[in-house]
Write a structure and sequence with these properties.
By secondary structure, the protein is of the alpha/beta class. The protein contains 6 helices and 12 strands.
Length: about 210
């Protein structure tokens, strides 16, 4: 059986995106949060906290956790992001609780194979959600990584090495993958959700 092709390796990410002058911090910045919930394949939840500065996306904090509603609720209260996105299909119960507690500052996200205009917002469901074209947004994050537009705090490399490993992307036959031509890890999707939180906050005015 032919192995999947690695599109972006950990070594390439370190070369392009490691910020050796910065450790994890989050004070005094406008923040965007992305969650990816634990499921049958992963026993942890993932959190990525992102800021943006003139087209550069700085990962401020990122970590694994038990992935309970209480964990993610604590994250939102601690970092106070202006917008948070969490993976919809992974845990509908946690999504509903977070939406109920944090209202319009929290939105669920779900990956889809085909979406008109690459992203749709669903207002008439609970919880309200973003449905995004998986291949399109994976390619978008890949482009940012390959061009050094996403920065990982790397003054202490142990803080970010695990997330960099999670951001490796493999190319697969789309006939064998219901979401398209890429396989990504949950840490990558948490980063993507943080990016989508920024995109929604900066490009759309309608509150969900």
């Amino acid at each position: 059986m032919e192995e999947n092709k690695v599109v972006l390796s950990a070594e390439q990410i370190i070369d392009k995106c490691a910020d050796k002058t910065r450790s994890m911090t989050f004070y005094g910045k406008k923040l965007y949060a992305g969650f990816d919930f634990k499921n049958k394949d992963y026993s942890f939840g993932f959190t990525v906290i992102l800021s943006e500065d003139y087209g550069i996306f700085n990962i401020e904090c990122a970590y694994l956790q038990d992935g309970t509603f209480e964990d993610f609720s604590k994250d939102i209260r601690l970092y106070n992001p202006v917008k948070t996105l969490g993976g919809y299909l992974d845990n509908e119960d946690v999504n509903a609780k977070l939406k109920r507690e944090f209202g319009s500052s929290y939105i669920s996200s779900r990956r889809c194979l085909n979406v008109s205009d690459n992203i749709n917002y669903s207002l008439n469901e609970w919880p309200a959600s973003v449905c995004f074209k998986s291949d399109y947004y994976i390619s978008k994050i890949l482009d940012l990584l390959q061009n050094g537009k996403i920065k990982f705090p790397y003054a202490n490399k142990n803080e970010s090495d695990w997330l960099i490993e999670q951001c490796k992307v493999e190319l697969v036959d789309p006939e064998n993958n219901k979401y398209g031509k890429y396989i990504c890890q949950p840490g990558f999707y948490a980063l993507m959700n943080a990016y989508l939180a920024w995109e929604y906050y900066t490009h759309f005015t309608q509150d969900i």
